[in-house]
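Take just one protein record:
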Amino acid sequence: MKRATAAAVLLAALATLTACSSEPEPAADAPPYTITEQDDTGNQRTVRVEVKTADRIEDVFNTVADTLDDEGGWFVEINCSTGGTKSADNRLGNGKKAVGATGAAATGLDEGGTQFEAQPNPECPAK
């Protein structure tokens, strides 16, 4: 009887340790950014973000994506605050997030999924 109790306690402790170790690490604080535009209607919504440096732009995307909770397909554009023109941004990266079934249909991602892709060799400030 004591062995069964000890084994059960040991298994419960191992399960607790395993559960704790599988949790994701908290996201690092993102560098400063500014949301310059954010749609709030429709199934496909765009969020435009400007940054002053290309450092850690994926952290910027993750921070912005964490705030998007209205159902829909969210498309996040991260641009350098310099180097763009009136007709073309200085794009550093693009991401998307699917909130709910509508978001999954709009983005092609699983519900709750995110995806981010930086441009090759992003530079900011622009040279």
About this structure: Strands lie at 34-38, 44-51, 72-80, 91-99, 114-118. The chain has three helices and five strands. The radius of gyration is 20 Å. Confidence is low (pLDDT under 50) at residues 7-11, 13-26.
